[in-house]
Design goal:
single chain, 144 residues, alpha+beta, Immunoglobulin-like, 2 domains, five-stranded mixed beta sheet, four-stranded antiparallel beta sheet, 9 strands, 22% helix
Length: 144
């Protein structure tokens, strides 16, 4: 009888050891974190009175009489946004780093007026950084 109880205890210890080893092994594998996989996304879009016309474009040709243009972009990140910078050529024209007023701290709708556009190509660069430090850069070209 005592021998039978000792055998059952030994069997239970073996089962417990196997289960703990399996648990330790599978917990060490871990799951891939979605936030670490993707960085910010910048989508330029064309907006008209009726609403969004084109959701993905990267350049526009202006008429000779136009000297200003309003750039619209949706900037988002799976992890919260930290900072958005807007450059005209190499000059910084705007920095956004306060997203507390936004309904979603992972999404920002950028509206930037570009003035005094001369003949040639004007490049507008948008840089977005999330709280994890991932950086995404997109360039929009205004051709005149």
């Amino acid at each position: 009888m005592v021998n039978s109880i000792n055998k059952k205890e030994t069997d239970m210890k073996k089962i417990l050891f196997v289960m703990m080893t399996a648990l330790l092994f599978f917990s060490a594998c871990g799951e891939e974190d979605l936030y670490e996989k993707y960085g910010p996304e910048i989508l330029f879009y064309e907006y008209e009175a009726e609403g969004v016309k084109t959701t993905e474009f990267n350049s526009i040709t202006l008429g000779a009489d136009k000297t200003e243009f309003t750039l619209f972009a949706r900037v988002s990140a799976p992890f919260k946004l930290k900072e958005i910078k807007v450059f005209r050529e190499e000059s910084l024209i705007k920095t956004i780093n306060d997203f507390s007023a936004e309904k979603k701290p992972t999404e920002y709708f950028l509206k930037q007026a570009i003035e005094n556009i001369a003949v040639g190509t004007t490049q507008i660069r948008v840089e977005a950084t999330d709280l994890d430090g991932k950086l995404t850069i997109r360039t929009f070209r205004i051709i005149k």
